Every structure is written in structure tokens, then in C-alpha cells.
Amino acid sequence: MQINRYSNREPLVFLWVMAPYVFFMNWLLFGTCNFSSLTVFFTAFGLSIAYFALIYFLFGIVAVLIKKRFPGDSEFFQRIGIMLPIFYLMNLLMVQGLYLFYENNSLLSCTPLRATEWWLSGFACLCSTVITFINEAMAGWEKWKASVTESSRLQNTYQKSRLLVLKRQINPHFLFNCFNSLSSLINEDTNEAEKFLDEMTKVYRYLLKGDNEQLVALSEELHFIQSYLYLNQTRFGSALQIKVNVTKEDMDKRLPPLSLQVILENIIYRNAFSKASPLFTAIYGNDNNGLVIENSLQPKQTQGTVDYEEGLDNLIDKYQLLNQLRVEIIETKTDRKIILPLINSQEGVSC
């Protein structure tokens, strides 16, 4: 079972302060009698450190509960204003419990000094205050380090995303295949060649603006995909069979731009297919506000030099940075499903 802590360094704070804390508490509690013999000193030290460890654990539970209720940086003074008075009251009770424990047990030859009771209580309250601010500082330091790490990760992912978009814009393999198909159409059917060129223009217009928007409507993405599929189906013919079945209710929902292109590109270039053994792909919505891209698996024996899994990994990272649900990938021996969460148009997005 995982123990909730105020900060990851809280056990280290305990080790730093416990020995000197117990030493001075026993000195105030027993006076010079605490140093009358090594047996008395170490017995009192062992008993007190066990008692204070239990008390520290109880303090930690209270601190975590208050932090859960007031977790924000802007709630620091509110959090401290509630925490310290509770700790002071707990310290007073703890000191009384300490006196009662030693007064009703003959474990030591020393008698607790009631004359130093308020000094003992004051020292305990002072230590609680110092420890509380140390733990707050540790928690703040950890949060700052996590923020710096996350900012660095965001920056790296953003730059990687821009690089991948640029690679798609100038993808020499895709361009070569498009121009090769266009060249064949010019000789065979000029009208079809004009249509192919028009669809190719639409694809590259969308690719060029794809990095300027964080989210696009599914209807816009599907409109782009129709052009992208037209180019590929002109090249592959009936060997590439794709069906799109999306409801009108899902059309206004949003997703990162070029998401479908990344997945379809991954499907087309990772699988072997022909007219005799076509590649089947379906795009449809599910009941959990997701878009499913399902395809038959016919892996190529040899992969090319382009890493198409990189684009898929980057898409998964994009969703994580948008604080949305994770992209699901369900793969069997015969097919694979990629489920993209769709974002309602009224939902805010945080990065």
C-alpha cells in the first residue's frame, strides 16, 4: 500500500530532525537526570523516538488531508493558517501524553519535570512550525522541478511535431508517387489528370496549414482525408479499400490536425496488399466518444527507410499533452484498431 506523503522528501526531513528533536525534548523533560548514565540516556532516547515517530506519522496524515483540501499555490496561507493551529493543539496533547506515559511507568529512574512543561510545549510547537515550512519548501521544490521537466518535454514534443509536419509537407516518397501517377494520367485521361492535380493541391494546402491549429473539426479532417485517399486509391486502385461511416453528431467534434493522415499513412506503408489481397480499412465512431480506425494486418516482410511509427508515437504524445484520454491501440494477429478520443467543441483544452 502506497503511503501518501506531503512531499517525496518527507522521510528525509524526519531523519534530519528526529535525533536532535528527541535529544532536546528529553533534556527539557528530565533535566540533567537524562545524562546520569548511558543506560538512562539510550533507554529514554529509544522510547521517546518511538513515541515521536508515531506522533510524526499522525501529523503527516493531518498535513496530507489539509493539503488535499487546499492544494493550490495560491492557497498557501490558508493551508498554513489551518495547519499550524491544529499542530499546536496536537503538540499540547502530545506533551501531556508524554508526561503521563513516563509518570505512570517505572521504565526510567528519572522523574519528568513538570516545571519545564511549557518550555517543552513551546519547543514542540516551534519545531512543528519549522518542519511544516521545510516540508512546504520541499513540496514547492518538487513541483518546480516537475514543472521544468514537463516544460522541457512539451518543448521537445512541440519541436518534434513541427519537424514531422515539415517532413510530411516535403515527403519525397509521397511526392514521387503522386507525380508518377499524375504523369500516367496525363497520357491516359487529361480530365482525370486535372482532377488528380486538384485533389493533390487540396492535400498540400491542408498539410501546409496543419501545424497552425491545435484542433480541427472532424468534418474538416475527413474532407482532407477524402482528397488524400483519392490520391492513394488512384495509385493502388481496388487493392486499397477504405470505408468511412461517421455520424453527423460526431462531425463537429474535434481532434488534432492530420491525425487521420498519420494513421492512414502508417497503415498503407506498413502493410503489403494487392488486388488479389486488398487492404481493408474502416473509419467509424463508437459509443464512447471515440473515432475508430480499423484495418486488416498484412505486414510487409521488409520495412522501408521511413519510420512511420514515429508519426503515430507523436500523435499519442499530442493527446497526452492535450490532457485528453489516451489513444488506444488494440492489435490481434489479423487486424488492428486505433481509437482516437474525440473532443467536444465546447470543451477547453489545456496543455
Number of domains: 2
The strands making up the biggest β-sheet line up spatially as 2-4-5-7-6
Enter the CATH topology name of the largest domain: Heat Shock Protein 90
Average pLDDT level:
80
H-E string: HHHHHHEHEHEHEEHEE
CATH architecture of the largest domain: 2-Layer Sandwich
Features:
single chain, 351 residues, alpha+beta, Heat Shock Protein 90, 2 domains, 5-stranded mixed β-sheet, two-stranded antiparallel sheet, 7 strands, 10% strand
Note down, in words, how this protein is organized.
- The protein is α+β, with helices and mostly antiparallel strands and 351 residues long.
- The mean pLDDT is 80.
- Helix 5 runs antiparallel to helix 6 and helix 6 crosses helix 7.
- The protein starts with 9 loop residues before the first helix and ends in a 10-residue tail after the last strand.
- It contains ten helices and seven strands.
- The strands form two sheets. It has a five-stranded mixed β-sheet, covered by helices on one side.
- A hairpin with a 4-residue loop joins strand 4 and strand 5.
- It has two domains: 139 residues, no CATH class; 172 residues, Heat Shock Protein 90 (2-Layer Sandwich).
Provide a concise account of the structure shown.
The chain has helices at residues 10-30, 38-69, 76-103, 117-169, 172-188, 190-209, 218-236, 248-251, 259-270, 308-321; strands at 216-217, 240-245, 254-255, 279-285, 290-296, 328-331, 335-341. The protein has 351 residues and is α+β, with helices and mostly antiparallel strands.
